[in-house]
Design goal:
- The protein has one domain.
- 30% of the residues lie in helices and 34% in strands.
- It has 7 helices and 13 strands.
- Strands 1, 2, 3, 6, 7, 8, 9, 10, 11, 12 and 13 form an 11-stranded mixed sheet that branches. A two-stranded antiparallel ribbon has the order 4-5.
- α3 packs across α5.
Amino acid sequence: MSIFTRSVAANRVVASLLIVCFLLAGCQASKQDTGTAAGALLGGVAGMFLGKGAGKVLAIGIGALAGGFIGNQIGSYLDEQDRLALLKESAKALAKSDDGETVKWENPDTEAKAEITVVKTETVQREIPIVRQKEVQKPGKLVLIGEPYEILTDSNVRFGPSTEYGVAKVLPKGSVLLAVGQVKGKNWILVNQNRQAIGYIHASLIGKKGTLAAQEATKEEVTAEQEVAQTEPAMKPTHDLDSLPDDMQMTQAVRPAVDLDEMVASYPDDETTENLVAEKVEVEAPARTVKMKVTTPKGEEETTVVASKGTDGAWEIL
């Protein structure tokens, strides 16, 4: 029988639903607060169990965050497209904005607008879930990366973070995978394919997605006879959500933090997962405090949250 089972996660979902039903029936919580809790829970559960690839990003994002991240009352004033647009802008701000920088968004048709400000960035210590093949050594502490990386030259993927470990597979130059994190104190990076850790690659053999394209652009711009050095760095291509493999599309998303049970529940409970191990690992991860101010013709609200990277690269609301 597979080590992956939905029973624990399913029980937790049922218990949570019962709590929400109790709140709806007997507590004095406001309509907005109750709606936030129910919307976040039901939306998050639906996204986790039913979503796949880009659809999973969309389901978790709209379902869970619209009721919590964007705000209680204001969230109910926004239509689905505005909520989705705000989530996309939030993901961009978390990934690219400097501390103190404000990103502004507006929809002239609905007169909804928002200001998203990254207040500060810090490093936090967390335990987050990973799924690895049994033969792959459990990592020690990781410095989290959570970004699409590519193989710079034909490279060995090893079962552990050293050349003393055997070769799990050989990946050709240009292969794209998810860099989970670098082993603390070592030049080895744990990498994912198909939502599971497949082994470790030396840091010198792998780079951010777009590195190879930038190197090619550099070669084309520098002529053999006239130019000695490149005057401007080559631009790296941006990441198109639909062009990324399924297990890397979450690097473009914002979602509630996922625990071990929820991660296990998102995998099939069959023979395809018999060789997998799910566990928590300790990481050093970036965390960003974000303040959002949302205004609509019906009112205005501000909310502040802290988001940190997960092992699949998604920004998780803590």
